[in-house]
Amino acid sequence: MMRAQVNLKIKQAFCPPKIVDKNPCLEYIQYIVFPWFDKFEVVRKENNGGNKTFLTMDELVADYEAGDLHPADVKPALAKAINEILKPVRDHFNSSSEAKILLNTVKKYRVSN
């Protein structure tokens, strides 16, 4: 998946403000981002609270439920983290001719029910 595709998918993701339960973006952070990076970094303007690094999911949940962390802050940070995780895979498929051939072959397959 290309960087722009990840950004678009996350931008469109369901992520209701102040609601943690059954929030897919927060679940991605909990089960993918924290285990991978041991932190979650949010970049935002000073007038929106400035940058913040969350070291635990409990800390992130507290800010999110309080409204101190908004979906508009979570989504770009989540997309950035996912893109960082996917970078080595993208690099592999871009640098290996065998991997490029495999990728093109797989893209030609159609899913049937």
TrEMBL record:
Enzymatic class: ligase
Name the record gives this protein: tyrosine--tRNA ligase
Originating organism: Triticum turgidum subsp. durum (Durum wheat)
Transmembrane regions: none
Catalyses which reaction(s): tRNA(Tyr) + L-tyrosine + ATP = L-tyrosyl-tRNA(Tyr) + AMP + diphosphate + H(+)
Family statement: Belongs to the class-I aminoacyl-tRNA synthetase family.
GO biological process: tyrosyl-tRNA aminoacylation
GO cellular component, one term: cytoplasm
The protein's Enzyme Commission number: 6.1.1.1
GO molecular function: ATP binding; tyrosine-tRNA ligase activity
Keyword Hydrolase among UniProt keywords: no
InterPro entries from the UniProt entry: aa-tRNA-synth_Ic, Tyr-tRNA_synthase
Pfam families, alphabetized: tRNA-synt_1b (PF00579)
The entry's keywords: Aminoacyl-tRNA synthetase, ATP-binding, Ligase, Nucleotide-binding, Protein biosynthesis
